[in-house]
Amino acid sequence: MPSIFGKSHLYRYDIQGGAKSHYLVFVHLPCLQTHLKHLYHLSLLPFIEYEQQTIECLMNYNSLTRDCINYILQRLHIHDRTISNCFGLSYFNKINKQCYWLDPDISMKQQIPKSELKPNLTFTILLYPPVPYAITDEKARLILYQQIFCNFISSIYTIPINLVETLSAYFLRGCFENKFNADKNHDILQLIIAAVGLSEEKTDRIKEKIIELYRDLNDIDLRSAQNQFVHQISQINTYGMIHFEIKELATDSIARNLLYN
User: Fold this and answer.
1) Residue 131: helix, strand or coil by DSSP?
2) What is the overall mean pLDDT for the chain?
3) CB count, 10 Å around CB of 201?
C-alpha cells in the first residue's frame, strides 16, 4: 500500500561506525488514518488505503536527537528552514503512559529507557507556524496538516459554536474527499461531535447540517477543502496548543496543562 508521502513507506538511514555502537529507532509520521484506528479502534474508514510512513534510523549511541531530526528532513527533502525548525520528536513511555518531547541537543539514548531496544518515536510539529496554509513545501505541509487533523479529532482545539458545522464539513471533505458515507461511517460523525465539545444528546440537527454542508462542498477539490479547514483552525485561540500532564507525587493526582507556541 502506498504512503501519503511517496511510493515507499519505510526508509532506513545508516550512520558510519561499528555495529555494536548503534541502535535502531523507528520514527513514525503523523497519519489520521492510523490515529483513528489505534486510538478509537475504528476499522471502517473511508480512506484510500494508505499506510503510516515509518523511517528506520540506525543511530549512534552518541547521536543527538537533532541528528535524527536532520536525517528525516533530508530523507523527506524538506529544505525550508522556516518550517524545518518547527519539527520535533516525541516518545511515548508504555510503562507510565506518558508522552514527552526529546531535547534536540541531548543524546537521544540518554532520554529513552534502557529497556527500549528499538524505540518508536513520532516526528511531528512542536512549533506551529502562524500561517500554516501558506507553506509551499509539499512534504512539510502534508505532515503539518495530518497533525492538525489528528489534533482536531482528539479535542485539542476549542471550537467556537458558530464554526462547528462549517469546520466539520471541511474536515470531512478534506480528509475523506467524496468517500464519506453518513450511514456507514456514523462513528466518525460521533467522534466529530465529541471533538468539538458537544454531547451526543440533541445533536441530530447539527449532524444533518454537517452532512448537508459536506455535500455542498462536492465541487471543491481536496487541497482547497484542506486549506480552508486549516485556515479556520489557525484563527481560533487554541491553535498551537499542546496538551501535557503533570503528576503530583504527593497526591498522585493528574493536572492537565496547556502550552502555547
Assistant:
1) coil
2) 83
3) 7
Looking at beta carbons, which pairs linking 148-152 to residues 24 or more positions away fall under 8 Å?
148/229, 148/230, 148/233, 149/32, 149/174, 149/175, 150/30, 150/32, 150/35, 152/195, 152/233
CATH of the domain at 61: 3.10.20.90
242: in domain = no
The helix (run of H) or strand (run of E) holding residue 158 is none
pLDDT confidence bin for 115, thresholds 50/70/90: confident
User: What's the pTM?
Assistant: 0.84
| Residue 183, domain extent | 159-236
Domain boundary among 125, 154, 183: 154
To the nearest 10 degrees (0 to 180), the angle between helices 164-176 and 204-216 is 50
